[in-house]
Amino acid sequence: MKPKITLREYREIIPLEQLSNDEKVMYLEKGSLSWAQAVYILQGYKPPELDIEIPNAVYHFTDLTNKIFEHLESNVIGHKKEKAGLKNYYVDTPEKWVDYWEKYIQQQNKQTESPQLQSKLQNQHDAILEVISQKGINRMEIPAGKKRTIENNCCVNYPLFFDKPTSFDNAWRKGRGKIFKMAEHDSYAKRTNK
Predict the structure, then answer these.
(1) According to DSSP H, which parts of 33-108 are helical?
(2) How many helices (H) and strands (E) would you count in the chain?
(3) Where does residue 42 rank: exposed (0-12), middle (13-18), buried (19+ CB within 10 A)?
């Protein structure tokens, strides 16, 4: 089963950090790497701590994670290991990860741009719905003046999802009327259609 990131795990997301050549060599000399470590290292980034590496990999590399899980589940790469408190823990040798990377992933990287944007938008919509729920507001009848409260909460609590000045407004516009709407939305829509 492909891993998904929950809003609770979102709080453990850390920014990407470039991996030096020396650090990359050090990782590639290890006996084994988890799939999440391999994702980071083969793209030139330092993997986070073991207990938060999976949600971070899913957040930063959504499409790549989905593709790798297709191959993990079909035994193309990786061996499932039991690790206390961790689901979806697969390992393999660095050599096999490098070989896998060259054979499968680099050929398919060109096709992954659009789904990542959809995934970020879905994460933004989930965050908006979470804030609306926390405020005790009906998502289909948001009172006038509450949009800014929701925006402020989203930007403070989920800065990686709302990382640009226009992120919230774009996500709001794309979800407005379908996923959530203002209480006066229908009367406003009728006035503008006349």
Answers:
(1) 35-42, 53-60, 62-73, 94-100, 106-108
(2) 11, 3
(3) buried
- First and final C-alpha spacing in the chain: 50
How far apart CA 45 and CA 41 sit, in angstroms, is 5
CA of 177: how far to CAs of 116, 128, 183, in Å? Answer: 23, 14, 10
Domain residue extents for the chain: 7-111, 114-192
- pLDDT by residue, tens only, the chain of 194 residues: 456 666 656 667 788 889 898 998 898 898 888 888 888 888 889 988 766 777 778 778 877 787 787 788 777 788 887 766 666 678 888 998 888 877 765 555 544 444 444 578 888 999 999 999 999 999 999 999 999 999 999 988 887 788 888 999 999 999 998 999 998 855 555 555 55
Instruction: State the virtual CA torsion across 63, 60, 53, 47 in degrees, nearest 10.
Output: 110
CB 154 within 8 Å of CB 131: yes
Rg of the chain in Å (alpha carbons):
20
